[in-house]
Each structure stands twice: as structure tokens, then as C-alpha cells.
Automatic annotation (TrEMBL):
GO terms for cellular component: endomembrane system; plasma membrane. This is S-type anion channel SLAH1. The chain crosses the membrane at residues 21-39, 51-69, 110-129, 141-160, 166-186. The lineage of its organism: Eukaryota, Viridiplantae, Streptophyta, Embryophyta, Tracheophyta. InterPro entries: SLAC/SLAH, SLAC1/Mae1/Ssu1/TehA, Voltage-dep_anion_channel_sf.
Amino acid sequence: MPFGASSTSKSIRFEFSHHVGVNYLFAPWISWLLLLQSSPFLKPKTPSYLLLWWAFSIPVLALDVKIYGQWFTKGKRFLSMVVNPTSQLSIIGNLVGVRAAAQTGWMECAMFLFCLGIIHYLVLFVTLYQRIQGNDYLPTILRPVFFLFVAVPCIASLAWDSNAGTFNMLSKMLFFLSLFIFASLVRQNNGMGG
């Protein structure tokens, strides 16, 4: 066994089991999906674009299954005990995947990812809203992740726009929801003296 291999596997195992750290595993896949969508060299509906979309989307879905599975099956890992604002990164991963799938013309796949993301968002939002009082469950160093409350409805608005082909009423509702949440967070932080 190479030097440090056992410590690396322990670190990976720890990251997968940590209720905050596991959510950051979505970040590289989210950034790669965003880079794919903004690439001037790859056009949607080309084989290389489709291959990269699959390569970047499958890990997001695998992480979704892992996280959702532990909430449903492990008695010690109930959602109400482990949820935190970083849990919204998985939703952002799904919604960024929606935009890329819509660009390729795979509307059913885009709708599947959108539904998965929105249902997960509703469950997380209600759970987080019930726990947000006092902010004692989240270390001070992680408080900047509260921006994710604003990011999810913004990305959902853009995802629905890509899926529907127009910035319709649902897109506008999600956009206004993000503005409302932003105003609420600003108000809360001013009330805390920070």
C-alpha cells in the first residue's frame, strides 16, 4: 500500500460521513457543469457536450442517492438532525444540471432533475426554517453559506427558464422568492448587529 493511502481513505470516508463536508463534494461538479454551459468551444447537442454532461451529472445524482439514502434509512442520520444550509448545494447541482440538459434538448431529463431539486428544496427549506432560530447549530465560520438560501431560487428560476423556453410566471415567482429571502437575511443580520 502506498504511503499515506490509508490516511487518504480515512479522510474520504470522514468527508462522506460528515453532515457538512459531504455537501462540498458537489462543488466541483457544479462548477464543471457551469463551465460546460458557458464554453464557447462546445456547442450543445454535440457528442462531446453530451458526454461531458453525463460525466458531470452522474456524480451529482450518485451523491444525491447517497445523501438522500442515509436520511431515509439510517436512524441516526435523520434529516432534522443533520440538515444545514450547505445541504442546499445538492439542489444547486440538480438545477445546474437542468440547464445543461435543457440546452441539449433532453427535456424529460431536465424535468426530472428540476422536480428532484424543487421537492428537495421544499423539504430542506421547511426543515431549515424551523431550525434557523438562534443559528447555534452552525459554526460562525460557516455563516456565509446562508447565501445559499438566495442562490437556490435564483438557479431554479434560470433552470425553469431553460426548461420552459421562456421567463414565464414560475420563473418570475422563483426570482421574487429569492429577492424576498435576500431581504429577510439582510434584515436578520442587521438585527443581530452584524
